[in-house]
Structure formats: structure tokens, C-alpha cells
Amino acid sequence: MFTGIIEELGTVLEADLTPRGGTLRISCPGMWRELDLGESVAVNGVCLTVTGTRDGSFTADVSPESLQRSTLGSLRRGEVVNLERALRLDSRLGGHLVQGHVDGVGRITEIRVEGRGRTLVMDAPPGIAAYLVEKGSVAVDGISLTVSALRGTSFSVAVIPHTLAATNLGRRRAGDAVNLEVDIIAKYVRSYLERGFSSRVGEGASTGGGDLYRKLVEGGFV
């Protein structure tokens, strides 16, 4: 689990990737000595497992699923990536709960300079856009951001100068593809509502949620 607060910008040193999977080696001078084998690190929002560390860098295996769901397959040597270590239970939750399980790929359609910051307009696949709400949270390349506007499958996020400097968003251009992960809470709420809270927990044990769903409908909330 992550928070969407980027700790360090890494640089891709090696990208040995095929549709069947592969490996990445990423330079991270600030954190590499603290990384343990088997530890989770989010790379542009994708949760990867550390398989080795050396000379200011770490290596990680990339599964076919991660390549299909994200932009990792297009990474090349020299590219800058967002890095975040997994959340500790005694840490502050500065962003929002991010799993590192990318839902899909969106695309930046417009970048507007507003003062010292920028507004990024992005297009999301319909299945992802359905979970977005204005003022809700979304992870873009692993960065916790707030949806400032929403229209159909298009949404906007306002990016402050600090985020532009501390992440790779300052290097993004219109047309670039980005990894998107929606709020896990939104996923659960939508799932429960679509199923009418009627699923059962264990054999013969009902959640009792059917009554709650009926009350929501009767009250005009659904």
C-alpha cells in the first residue's frame, strides 16, 4: 500500500522488457541502501518487488499483467520515473490509499499553465472514468492528485509547483500516456451498490446488506 506521495525521482538504467515480462534496473541514489529484497516499490504507480540492489540502483521483475495494464512496457533507458516505498503503519497518510495496482492507461490531452502551476486535462478509459468524482482522489503515475473537473471521460487535475518539481509531471507533454489508479474505496462502494449488497459472507452467512440497499433506494440515494 502507498500514499501517492513521491519520495524520489529515479532514472531507468536498463529496461529488458518483452510482452512476456522482463526486468527493470532503476537508479535511486537516495533510497537504494534502505531497500530490502522482496520490498515493494511503486514505479510510476506500479507496485514492483525489489529483486536486487547495487551501485545506487535496484532491480525489479515486471509481469506480463503489469505490462498490459500500464505504461511500463514503453520505458526506455534514461527515462525519469516516480518512486515511492510502501507505506508504514506509523506514517502519515499525506495523499490517499494507493494500492499500486494500475487500473489502466489514460492520456494527457491538454496542459494549461496557470500561475506557477499547471492544470492537466486527461482522457480516461470509460471503465476508469466511471469511478471518478469531482474533488475525489486519483493516482496519476503514482501521484496522489485531486480531480478538479470532470466531463464525460475527461478529467482535470491542478498540479502545484512542488509536485511539478518533485515528480515527472513537470516533464509530461500533451499526448503522453499515464498510469491511472482510482480510489479503492470508490471501487468497493460501486461494487456493493451494483450487487445490491446481496452477496453472502461464508456458507449460510448473510451480510444483511440487502435491507441497507433497499433503504438507500427508498430514500432516493440510489
Could you walk me through the main structural features you see in this protein, from its secondary elements to its overall organization?
The chain is an alpha+beta fold and 222 residues long. It has 3 domains: 78 residues, Beta Barrel (Elongation Factor Tu (Ef-tu), domain 3); 81 residues, Elongation Factor Tu (Ef-tu), domain 3, CATH 2.40.30; 33 residues, no CATH class. It is built from 5 helices and 12 strands. The strands form 2 sheets. A 6-stranded antiparallel beta barrel has the order 1-2-5-4-3-6. Strands 7-8-11-10-9-12 form a 6-stranded antiparallel barrel. About 3% of the residues have low confidence.
Describe this protein with a few key phrases:
222 residues, single chain, Elongation Factor Tu (Ef-tu), domain 3, 6-stranded antiparallel beta barrel, 3 domains, alpha+beta, 12 strands, globular
**Number of strand elements:** 12
Helical region count?
Answer: 5
What CATH calls the topology of the largest domain is Elongation Factor Tu (Ef-tu), domain 3
Structural class: alpha+beta
Q: What is the subunit arrangement here?
A: single chain
Please give the CATH class of the largest domain: Mainly Beta
Strand order of the largest sheet: 1-2-5-4-3-6
Described by strand count, sense and barrel closure, the largest sheet is:
6 strands, antiparallel, barrel
Uncertain segments are 203-208
The topology string of helices and strands comes to EEEEEHEEEHEEEHEHH
- CA-atom Rg in angstroms: 19 Å
Tell me what portion of residues adopts beta-strand conformation: 35-45%
Mean pLDDT across residues:
90
